[in-house]
Design brief:
This protein has 368 residues and is an alpha/beta fold. It has 2 domains: 114 residues, Lyase, Ornithine Decarboxylase, Chain A, domain 1 (Beta Barrel); 206 residues, TIM Barrel. 27% of the residues lie in helices and 26% in strands. It is built from 10 helices and 17 strands. The strands form 2 sheets. Strands 1, 10, 11, 12, 13, 14, 15, 16 and 17 form a 9-stranded mixed β-sheet that branches. An 8-stranded parallel barrel has the order 2-3-4-5-6-7-8-9, surrounded by 6 helices. Helix 3 runs parallel beside helix 4 and helix 4 crosses helix 5. The protein is elongated, with a radius of gyration of 22 Å. The model has no long low-confidence stretch (mean pLDDT 89).
Length: 368
């Protein structure tokens, strides 16, 4: 367990011990304002997906800024438990809950909260119904539709209709519409307006073929990050689940340069064994570089090239604009924020370049 409290509130940011996961609260508020400006007067509901950051304090800021939202989204039953205990009453779990132990945990939450899960097979729906009846609770079900990205979900309108009718027939489960995940599986894929439009078209075409399902049962919720602005005015889309945008990572910044990276890893130079190499104290255990390397922020000609468990190697080119020495600080922008935040117990929250608070990443490790 990380114990960062030996440095008091008011510590200058560049004096924080490293490696540190730092949240610039002013940049976060800037991003929320930018996001609000982009959304404008759209009728689409924004549901904050909290799995990327796992921090209730950030989730409450997010929810307060978009007061018309219908709640939050999480990825696992463990995350659902954490956020249910943090004051959130409307929670969508963007996964199927299959095993009996997890369904029992779901029923316990449903006793005092509005909860929804994704479904894509009849057996799971029957099990949800049976255990919900046993516990005297109601569970919301969103049918997941595969829009061609190779995730879970149904593809054929006849299957979707059959499952929808089953949910409507069974006790203690409610049909809460349809959903699709628009996040690309491959990090090389870039969210563009054209491919967002294609995904929306596939999703809506699938729904429109369900002619015997009532319109009120077709509430359409999609998950999108970088391309969310391209589907704000898509016909029939009711809700967008967004997570990375208010915080940003390098992957998201490539298509949303108008936002700021509000979360970075602060690290220290440990060694400069040769002129072209700098070694820092941030490795796999802090940066989460599994699907992409972090990017050095603000230092031209210096690039992160290789990471071991505890160390990172930076390559210094001949035209580098800065010279780094032992104990100098370096900022790294994570490539994928969700893999990075899961390495830490706290955000060091910085305001006006001094430590303003320590916000727990409460759902870290809640993968089950």
């Amino acid at each position: 367990m990380e114990k960062p409290t030996f440095q008091p509130i008011g510590t200058p940011v560049m004096e924080l011990d490293t490696p540190a996961l730092v949240l610039d609260i002013e940049a976060l508020h800037f991003n929320l304002e930018q996001m609000s400006s982009v959304i404008g007067h759209s009728d689409v509901v924004i549901r904050s997906h909290v799995s990327t950051f796992g921090c209730p304090a950030i989730a409450h800021l997010y929810a307060d800024r978009f007061s018309g939202n219908r709640g939050i989204a999480v990825s696992t039953i463990g995350e659902c438990e954490v956020f249910a205990n943090s004051g959130f009453s409307d929670i969508l779990i963007t996964n199927q809950i299959i095993t009996r132990p997890k369904i029992f945990r779901l029923c316990s939450i449903a006793a005092n909260h509005s909860v929804q899960v994704l479904v894509d097979n009849p057996e799971n729906v029957r099990n949800l119904s049976d255990l919900a009846v046993n516990r005297g609770v109601t569970i919301g079900c969103k049918i997941e539709i595969d829009v061609g990205l190779g995730r879970g979900g149904l593809s054929y309108p006849s299957e979707i209709t059959e499952l929808a009718n089953l949910i409507l027939e069974l006790d203690n489960v409610e049909l809460r519409g349809m959903t699709a995940n628009f996040l690309p599986l491959h990090v090389s894929s870039v969210s563009t307006k054209s491919n967002m439009e294609t995904l929306v078209r596939v999703f809506i075409d699938s729904i429109r073929q369900m002619t015997n399902i009532n319109p009120e049962d077709r509430f359409l919720s999609v998950r999108s990050n970088e391309g969310f602005q391209d589907i704000l005015n898509a016909p029939e889309i009711s809700e967008i689940q967004i997570d990375t945008v208010p915080l940003m990572d390098h992957k998201s910044l490539q298509t949303n340069p108008q936002f700021k990276p509000s979360v970075k890893v602060l690290c220290s130079v440990l060694s400069r064994p040769i002129p072209s190499r700098v070694v820092v104290d941030a490795g796999h255990k802090t940066t989460g570089p599994d699907i992409g390397l972090p990017v050095v922020d603000g230092l031209k000609g210096i690039e992160a090239v290789k990471f071991s468990a505890e160390h990172g190697a930076l390559e210094v080119s001949d035209n580098a604009t800065h010279t780094l020495y032992s104990n100098d600080k370096v900022w790294l922008i994570p490539f994928d924020l969700s893999l990075c935040t899961n390495q830490f117990d706290y955000f060091r929250v910085v305001r006006n370049n001094v430590l303003d608070g320590l916000w727990p990443i409460s759902s870290r490790g809640s993968f089950g």
